[in-house]
Structures are given as C-alpha cells and as structure tokens.
Design a protein that fits this description.
Elements: E1 2-4, E2 9-11, H1 19-26, E3 32-33, H2 46-56, E4 64-69, H3 72-83, E5 96-97, E6 100-101, H4 110-116, E7 118-126, E8 129-137, H5 144-148, E9 159-162, H6 166-176, H7 202-211, H8 213-219
Parallel strand pairs: 2-4, 4-9
Antiparallel strand pairs: 1-2, 1-3, 5-6, 7-8
C-alpha cells in the first residue's frame, strides 16, 4: 500500500500481483508507507483503508485508487511456492497458529494445501457482520473482490492493472497522475516454480476457478 497526498493516489497491494515492485517504484512519490501493522498494512483492502479515511476525514473520492490483478491460477501457485505451507496449512511467515508450530521440513503438497487452505482477514464483512483478525477457509483474502469492494460489493477503486501488461499499464497510469517513470522495471519478490498449469488437476483447477471469479471476469483469464 502507498498513499500520496501530493499526487492524490492510493495504491492497494494485492498479494503476489507485482505489489512489492510497484511499491518500490512509488516510494519517491508517497507520503504514507505500508508496514506489517494496521491501519496501513502492506495488503490492506479498499474497505479497510476507506474506513480509516472516513475516521480521519481524508476525502477518498479525491484520490485515484488502483491495484493489480493476475491470472489467479498462476497467482495461487506463486503464493504456494513463496509462502511454503506446511502439512498443517501454516505459512512460512507464521511461527505458530493456535498453538500449532510451523514445520518447514514437512511441507504440504499443492493439492493438499488447496483442499485445506485458510487465509487471514484483518477485516471481513460476512453475512451481515464485521469480523476482525479471522482465519477463513479458502483463499478469499487473495481475491480481487476482497481487495477492491465495499460491503455492498461495489468497487472502491478507479483502475485495476493487469500484471501481464504491467509495464505499459503502470506507465500510463502514473503518467496520467503526473509521474514519469521508466518502463520495464525490475521484478522483485518473485517466486520460482514450474509452469503453473502443471500443479493442477481437474479438482484443484475448479476450486481456484470458483474462488476467483472476480479476477477471472475482470482479466478475462483462462486456465
């Protein structure tokens, strides 16, 4: 996440969607920098951040809000290989969860992880109730809908950039904001893995497709 009061932009960092590289590009133009803690968490959602804007009377509508999206089948493989879930589904950024210790020497297979995966929401609106600091079954935290929508399912962002076209789309977006950058920026925080399609069987392909409908529809992605 990055905020510029001068250039009037908000960048929301969607996990495993070129967010680290883009944050580095935006650093010289930003006034507010993200961290591992709220309210400016690295991967804060639009809903979370707008609630903070409302409490501080910052005019959200005056800012150009943007984020990124990536083929979800590839993005999920990137998440899996980067965060190395263990046999209990814990990730390598966790020391423990509910008394269970992360076991880096006993990693889950891709399919086993997909079947048991949980993701962590700092703020979630579910069935008419706000939930905070909640592990939720599935990969909903990583979806485009979770990143950009308010409680009514309406988008709070102005533009979503496709990672597959990031050099040109980011260049055009920042140029419109009066920021000139060099295209073809270096990638940061990449993960090494096989062709993403090789990780899937029909069951896991369908699970990811069902959970990332918003990403697929927006980017017109196919497997």
């Amino acid at each position: 996440m990055r905020i510029s009061h001068k250039n009037k932009f908000i960048f929301l960092s969607k996990p495993r969607c070129a967010s680290t590289a883009i944050r580095a590009i935006l650093d010289p133009y930003s006034d507010v920098f993200s961290s591992s803690a709220p309210p400016f968490h690295h991967h804060t959602t639009a809903m979370e951040l707008k609630m903070y804007f409302d409490t501080t009377h910052w005019p959200w509508e005056e800012y150009f809000v943007f984020t990124t999206v990536r083929n979800p089948w590839e993005m999920v493989v990137s998440y899996f290989t980067f965060f190395r879930p263990d046999i209990n589904g814990l990730y390598n950024f966790e020391k423990e969860r509910n008394g269970v210790i992360y076991q880096g020497s006993k990693l889950a297979s891709f399919k086993d992880w997909i079947l048991m995966a949980k993701t962590y929401h700092r703020l979630l609106y579910l069935n008419g109730t706000y939930l905070q600091n909640k592990w939720v079954d599935g990969l909903s935290k990583l979806s485009l809908a979770n990143t950009i929508n308010d409680i009514d399912g309406k988008s709070l962002v102005n533009r979503v950039l496709k990672v597959e076209n990031i050099d040109t789309e980011l260049y055009d977006t920042l140029q419109a904001l009066g920021i000139l950058i060099e295209p073809n920026q270096k990638r940061i925080n990449t993960s090494e893995h096989m062709n993403y399609q090789d990780y899937y069987d029909p069951q896991t392909k369908k699970i990811v497709g069902d959970q990332f409908i918003s990403d697929i529809e927006y980017g017109k992605y196919t497997f």
